[in-house]
Amino acid sequence: MGLWIKICGITRPEDAIAVERSGADALGLIFSSRSSRTVSPERAALIVAPLSEHLEKVAVFTEPDWDRIEEVVERLGIDLIQWHGGPLSRDEDAKLGSFGVPWMHAIRWDGRSPLETPHTALRLLVEGRSAKGWGGTGEGWSYGALREVEWPLPVVLSGGLSPEGVAIALNSICSPGNPDGRRLFGVDVSSGVESRPGVKDEIRMNTFVKNVREWEALL
Ligand SMILES: O=C(O)c1ccccc1NCC(=O)[C@H](O)[C@H](O)COP(=O)(O)O
């Protein structure tokens, strides 16, 4: 199976259709108030309406507003919850596992500490620490540091990826000489395929997907 490719921060139905056309596996919708890409559940319903069931819909949250999470998951047919809200208590971990869909823990990693392992999470999305915001900052980091730690769950590489840089980023953690890299589950991008925050560039999305597929064909 190829790498899972998620394009995040979709705010317009036409961009969602372009994500599906690009051959990506998933799109992300931001329900956090801490973003310039936030969409309401009503807006999100319009965005996902024309999409096929084959494109996974990921809902991104940073706040433990459980009623809102439940509403979004039920109303929109969400496939995966992405949690960006920082370290979790045991109760929060259990709560995130209780919505009837899997969830992914997004970690703003310092490049050294062991990767957190919530009990109920399906996978980890790992990006660097940025003073700019909670996510969608476009800031890259030293991806190769991932080679030095155990991966308790399948990892999605994120933070500052772009069509131009994604193969270099992937090479720094996985290569034919480093078979461990085969545990990488996927890649996630937002700013690197935008013309401005919240507005995706179709050519950049297509090029991103093409470059990932060409890279994995060489592995
Ligand atoms: O995208 C946002 O604005 C955002 C805000 C708050 C929490 C998460 C957010 N995005 C989540 C994502 O999955 C992004 O794709 C990820 O952070 C990578 O973004 P980028 O570095 O811009 O590619």
TrEMBL record:
<keyword id="KW-0057">Aromatic amino acid biosynthesis</keyword>
<dbReference type="InterPro" id="IPR044643">
    <property type="entry name" value="TrpF_fam"/>
</dbReference>
<dbReference type="GO" id="GO:0000162">
    <property type="term" value="P:L-tryptophan biosynthetic process"/>
</dbReference>
<feature type="domain" description="N-(5'phosphoribosyl) anthranilate isomerase (PRAI)">
    <location>
        <begin position="5"/>
        <end position="211"/>
    </location>
</feature>
<protein>
    <recommendedName>
        <fullName>N-(5'-phosphoribosyl)anthranilate isomerase</fullName>
        <ecNumber>5.3.1.24</ecNumber>
    </recommendedName>
</protein>
<keyword id="KW-0413">Isomerase</keyword>
<dbReference type="InterPro" id="IPR013785">
    <property type="entry name" value="Aldolase_TIM"/>
</dbReference>
<comment type="similarity">
    <text>Belongs to the TrpF family.</text>
</comment>
<comment type="pathway">
    <text>Amino-acid biosynthesis; L-tryptophan biosynthesis; L-tryptophan from chorismate: step 3/5.</text>
</comment>
<dbReference type="InterPro" id="IPR001240">
    <property type="entry name" value="PRAI_dom"/>
</dbReference>
<keyword id="KW-0028">Amino-acid biosynthesis</keyword>
<dbReference type="Pfam" id="PF00697">
    <property type="entry name" value="PRAI"/>
</dbReference>
<dbReference type="InterPro" id="IPR011060">
    <property type="entry name" value="RibuloseP-bd_barrel"/>
</dbReference>
<keyword id="KW-0822">Tryptophan biosynthesis</keyword>
<dbReference type="GO" id="GO:0004640">
    <property type="term" value="F:phosphoribosylanthranilate isomerase activity"/>
</dbReference>
